[in-house]
Amino acid sequence: MTTPLPAPGRVDLPARSRFAAALRRGLWWAVLSLTGGVERRGRLPRGGCVVVANHSSHADTAALLAALDARHTPVIGAAADYWFASPWRRRICRRLAAGFPVRRGGGGMDDLLSMADELRSGRAVVLFPEGTRGKDGELGSFHRGALVLAERAGVPVVPVGIAGTDRLLPKHGRLRSALVRVTIGEPLPSAVTPAGARDAVVALHSRTVAEPLGDSAARRRVAAVVTSRWGVPLAFVWALAEALSWPLMPELLLGVVCVAVPRAAWKMSLGALAGSVAGGLLALQLAAAGVQLPAPLTTDRMRAEVRRGLALEGASAVRQQPWNGIPFKVYGAGAGRAGVPAGDWAAASTTARGARTLSVGLGFAAFGLLMRRHRRHYGRYLVLLGGGFTAGLALIVHGWA
Question: What's the pTM value of the predicted model, to 2 decimals?
Answer without folding.
Answer: 0.64
